[in-house]
Amino acid sequence: MASVLRKRRQPKKAIELARLLVALDDAARERRRLRPRRSLGASLSGAR
User: Fold this and answer.
1) In 3D, which of 13, 21, 16, 18 has the Cα closest to residue 47?
2) 7 compared with 48, residue with greater pLDDT
């Protein structure tokens, strides 16, 4: 029972995670274009 629920729940979570990562990447790109900050880029690349 639990395994079935887990299997059903995972795809949605994966899609949400992917969408969040894409949104974060877009925001980081926008910020870099507006005002490049070395500390910001380093923290973002280090978090991944």
Assistant:
1) 21
2) 7
Cα distance between residue 33 and residue 41, in whole Å: 11
Say if residue 7's pLDDT is above 70: no
Mean pLDDT of the 13-32 span: 88
Taking the C-alpha atoms of residue 23 and residue 27, their distance in angstroms, rounded to an integer, is 6
Average pLDDT score over residue span 16-25: 91
Its sign, for the CA torsion 4, 6, 9, 15, is negative
> Which residue is it, tokens 């949400």?
16
